[in-house]
Specification:
By secondary structure, this protein is of the alpha+beta class. It folds into two domains: 41 residues; 110 residues, Sandwich (Immunoglobulin-like), CATH 2.60.40.420. Helices cover 21% and strands 28% of the residues. The protein has two helices and ten strands, in the order H-E-E-E-E-E-E-E-E-E-E-H. The protein is elongated. The N and C termini lie far apart (82 Å). Dinuclear copper ion binds next to loops. The site of dinuclear copper ion has 9 residues, from loops.
Length: 196
């Protein structure tokens, strides 16, 4: 017989095990549940977008990315580490395809450090592994992150936001040195701890 040659998996199920109306009801319930979950997720996305995420997470401060080099806080001579009157340090950097400027900065250990970054072109990321520093660097905004390094050492600083073909090569370093050593470096160091 021809029927005997059909593999058992392809054989139609006997009718009447589950009434068709009941299947439709079950499907409707699942559909409702799914639509409900989608609606809940949309509400979460919109609410967090409006209240949290439509601006850079660290700091809400705008800047004109087209005139960074001409005047203001991010002119080249003002980049790097600057001591503040209260003894803390402010590090200013620019992120652009595909480098941080400067690409190495010195800071002192056990000192409050404030990083201020902005981008000239696209969104970059600024991450210092094993610290609380992790922010997006968005053009037209100034990202600000505060931290304090408890151990001296060289902290490698990858761009962690895909920014184009050269993204993988976009690295910089933060050189955390003992306080005495920083004092000795401070007069000359604003933007040049590059080791080749
Ligand atoms: Cu800059 Cu990735």
């Amino acid at each position: 017989m021809a029927e005997a040659q059909i593999p058992s998996l392809l054989r139609p199920l006997p009718d009447g095990i589950v009434p068709a109306e009941q299947i439709a009801r079950t499907e409707k319930r699942w559909l409702l549940l799914m639509v409900g979950m989608l609606a809940a997720m949309m509400v979460v996305v919109v609410v967090t977008g409006v209240t949290h995420a439509i601006r850079p997470p660290s700091n809400v401060e705008t800047i004109d990315p087209t005139t960074l080099h001409l005047s203001g806080e991010f002119v080249e001579s003002n980049l790097g580490t600057a001591p503040e009157p209260d003894g803390s340090l402010t590090v200013r950097m620019i992120a652009d395809q595909y480098a941080f400027v400067p690409d190495c900065v010195n800071v002192a250990v056990d000192t409050p450090v404030k990083f201020r970054l902005t981008s000239t072109d696209v969104i970059h990321g600024f991450l210092l592994p094993a610290t609380n520093v992790n922010t997006m660097v968005v053009p037209a905004f100034v990202a600000e992150v505060r931290t304090r390094f408890t151990r001296p050492g060289v902290y490698r600083m990858p761009c962690n936001e895909f920014c184009g073909n050269g993204h993988h090569g976009m690295w910089a370093r933060v050189n955390v040195v003992p306080k005495e050593q920083f004092q000795a470096l401070a007069p000359t160091e604003r933007s040049s701890c590059v080791q080749r």
